[in-house]
Amino acid sequence: MSDEQIDVLLFGLGAIGSFYSFILSRSNRVRLSVVARSNYDAVKSRVCLLPRCIVPGYTELADDEYVQGFIIDSQNHGRHTVTPFKVVRTPAEANQTYDYVVCAHKAIDQEAAVAQLAPVIDQDRTTIVLIQNGVGNEEPFRKAYPRSTIITCVTWTGATQVEPGLVQHTKSENMQIGLFPNDSADQSVEHSRLDTFASLLTAGGTVFQAIDDIQRQRWEKVVWNAAWNSLTTLTLLDTRSWLDSSPEAMPITRRLMHEVIAVGRACGVSTLDDDIVDKLINRILGMPGIGSSMQTDYKEGRPLEVDAILGYPFRKSKELGLSTPTLDTIYAIVMGVDRRWVCPLNLVIIEWIEKCTISDTRPSW
Ligand SMILES: NC(=O)c1ccc[n+]([C@@H]2O[C@H](COP(=O)([O-])OP(=O)(O)OC[C@H]3O[C@@H](n4cnc5c(N)ncnc54)[C@H](OP(=O)(O)O)[C@@H]3O)[C@@H](O)[C@H]2O)c1
């Protein structure tokens, strides 16, 4: 496949989807299509090639100053406009199958996403790539497309879509990739598809590692997310302020992390050890206080990635007869919080909280 054109579909063109679309588009072998949802009009109609298009008040542009696509503004890679081959609202609209379908949507209602992707997947050709937080994300894909190769990725890249079609990327950039095992598949095909995807990331100039023990990485990231996403969302504090809020905060955080690690180990990830807790605590203490994507989703009234981050570990804990009281409690409360949108009054309260907040991560009270 080395010189052949590779058809890639990016599903979930938000912050991470746009960043990795940009990376993949840098290989001249890739023909990139994207499924855009709320940002469809911005990406499909035309955005400006020139930086001045985002200067407030600027309205008039000459025709040759526009191009279809989206903008990546990266502290590592500079500012680029990406012009996909196809921009579609739904996978069905693409009207073709793909070599790689890269999923970077929020891990919310994974079953619905799996069903939507049916028209673009040819199980004997298509490799599914998942770039999402959470654990258990691969299972609905394996169930629906048992012959497809699945590459599962853990990203530590930091990006935000600041307006439709404009994504800012910080200096954080790293990803681990690996195969989700399929014992009934031809292993040489599985590995060559992984190698091809790795070669595209290399051509795109991003930082990543291909590793065998990818589930260990997924669980390590979920230990991080289970703690910081949940606790910053429930308290509306940044990580520092939470840890400083009472003498109980640190032990509760550590207990939650240890319980998620115990579930991961019981699920067969034997390399997941308790030292991760110290490592992750030291990492957060070395950073300024941060919020989390779940906290941002909460404030913006969007559904939370509660199932992939807490729900799967919780269910596995029950199935395996483990005792995880902190995880159980936090999961139940975050589930309740996730249902806030059923009561419109809650959204009014959230809006009011937003108005009283100095920044995303540092509430004024
Ligand atoms: N951003 C980061 O710095 C970061 C870092 C590490 C990991 N992650 C993980 O990366 C994944 C993507 O996050 P993100 O920050 O890129 O999110 P995002 O900016 O909110 O983008 C998500 C994109 O997927 C679409 N989408 C959301 N839910 C969907 C669904 N159920 N089905 C189909 N499309 C859906 C959204 O469309 P709409 O705009 O229409 O909602 C949006 O285009 C998440 O699992 C996140 O936890 C993010």
UniProtKB/TrEMBL annotation:
A single GO BP: pantothenate biosynthetic process
Lineage top rank: taxon: Eukaryota
Residue ranges of every copy of the Ketopantoate reductase N-terminal domain listed in the record: 9-181
Gene Ontology terms for molecular function: 2-dehydropantoate 2-reductase activity
Gene3D superfamilies named among the record's database cross-references: N-(1-d-carboxylethyl)-l-norvaline Dehydrogenase, domain 2, NAD(P)-binding Rossmann-like Domain
Pfam annotation, one family: ApbA
Domain Ketopantoate reductase C-terminal span(s) in chain numbering: 213-336
Enzyme class, UniProt record, top EC level: oxidoreductase
Assigned keywords, A-Z: NADP, Oxidoreductase
EC numbers on record: 1.1.1.169
SUPFAM superfamilies on file: 6-phosphogluconate dehydrogenase C-terminal domain-like, NAD(P)-binding Rossmann-fold domains
GO CC terms, sorted: cytoplasm
Database matches in InterPro entries: 6-PGluconate_DH-like_C_sf, 6PGD_dom2, ApbA, KPA_reductase, KPR-Related, KPR_N, NAD(P)-bd_dom_sf
Family: Belongs to the ketopantoate reductase family.
NCBIfam families: apbA_panE
Protein name according to UniProt: 2-dehydropantoate 2-reductase
Organism: Rasamsonia emersonii (strain ATCC 16479 / CBS 393.64 / IMI 116815)
Phylogenetic lineage: Eukaryota, Fungi, Dikarya, Ascomycota, Pezizomycotina
